[in-house]
Amino acid sequence: MKFWNVLIILRIIFLLFFAIGLPLILHYAGNHHQSDYQMIHTSANEAFILLGLGTALWFIVFIYYIKEFLINLLLKKNDTIQLLECGEKRKGTASYEFEFMDSKPYQRHFEVGNTIGIDGQVGNTKTIVLTAIGLLLLIALAAGILVYTYINESRGYGWRYLYFWHPYIMIPGSFILYLGFLFGTANDVFSKYLDKFVKP
User: Quick one: the chain helix, strand, coil %, rounded to 5?
Assistant: First the structure.
């Protein structure tokens, strides 16, 4: 359904802009770099705490991404493959709620009472590959920001160029905020109030 496709695209654009684009714009367009005076008066302990905070936030993002978008996808694929290997291909009526990797959930294929057919075309390998590429891009983004800013902003003061609103800290923090709170709340709202618009 086009409505859901547009909604998903808009949410992805929103996430990428506010989680990645906005912190970078504020940092570079606003010229929010630590001055020599500020870095001189920043202790090594404070610098390492900020470095550790940013790294911890990035690892939380990586773990969340791996769990939600990679491990769950692989587990569902394996479960479906086992079902196909041990079962017989046929059409039937769903007597309990299924949890499949449904690319079109708005069509409600697997709701109780619906007629369903299961064949060998499960576990979209392309989706898994794209998900893995997304993880690599996230890792590259974190490493790239850290290396680039260290080379161009440290000016011989080590990690003292980091501050609490630095993109290395703000970007993973924004991901956690939007994915954990805003997107979680939005999912509840959409599932509750927009359900009537997608019923067949």
Answer: 70, 5, 25
